[in-house]
């Protein structure tokens, strides 16, 4: 029988329990990563070097993977293999053709 959706496998459960034993019962790796991302963001604001900015962006993007849905690339096809466009030009001089 498969485990329910979202349930941790044996290896993940073991690792999470081990981390909680080492860092405290309330340890959450995602929250810890968010704290570090915030620290890197503050560092990038104080010293806006390219390396600091890159590290800050990379850390926030990692956190975003947990809170925002990941967009999937799709291909869109209309099914039309060829499209023919015809242009008809009509000369219009703006004058009236009254022959009275």
Secondary structure elements and pairings:
Elements: H1 10-23, H2 29-46, H3 50-67
Helix pairs in contact: 2-3
Give a concise summary.
This protein has helices at 10-23, 29-46, 50-67. It has 100 residues and is mainly α.
Written description of the protein model:
This protein is mostly helical and 100 residues long. Helices cover 50% and strands 0% of the residues. It has a domain at 25-67. Helix 2 (29-46) packs antiparallel against helix 3. The mean pLDDT is 80.
Determine the N-to-C terminus distance: 95 Å
How many extended strands?
0
Strand and helix order: HHH
The 3D shape can be described as elongated
Measured by DSSP, the beta-strand proportion falls in: under 5%
Count of individual helical segments: 3
Instruction: Outline the low-pLDDT stretches.
Output: none
- Radius of gyration over alpha carbons? 31 Å
Derived structural class: mainly alpha
How confident is the prediction overall: mean pLDDT?
Answer: 80
Key terms for this structure?
100 residues, mainly alpha, 0% strand
